[in-house]
């Protein structure tokens, strides 16, 4: 009981650009930390651990926990939640949050991390020139028409 606040709650429930409408809150009954969805008419309470594998998702389904999917919005670092109806709409490579049930072990305690943005490559790093093109480039480079 009264575990420490999971540090990734500030990523899951950011103070700004909170597109998933998640708010960190201690459960009023069991005092565990939860992520509360506040974007709908009814608040939905999730355990903060992220379900990241088929095994986690299967466990949650066997325990009949309601799931919501974390959907990343491109490479923006933003995400929103998408309701999942039972086993339908479950993809094994997805990330999910499972419904919080008081006084039960969370399905997952895995922290939430945003994927790294793909690193920008220096221009032309993966462009292969033919020998002819290289010669043509060198010719133009040495004798620019604007000189
Ligand atoms: Zn609780």
Largest sheet: 3 strands, antiparallel
Number of alpha- plus pi-helical segments: 3
First-residue to last-residue Cα separation = 76 Å
Uncertain stretches of 5 or more adjacent residues: none
Would you tell me the overall average pLDDT? 86
Query: Which strand order does the major sheet show?
Result: 1-2-3
The shape is elongated
Helix content: 10-25%
Q: Secondary-structure element sequence?
A: HEEEHEEEH
> How many distinct beta strands?
6
Radius of gyration: 24 Å
Please report which band the strand proportion falls in: under 5%, 5-15%, 15-25%, 25-35%, 35-45% or over 45%. 15-25%
In short:
With 147 residues, the chain is α+β, with helices and mostly antiparallel strands.
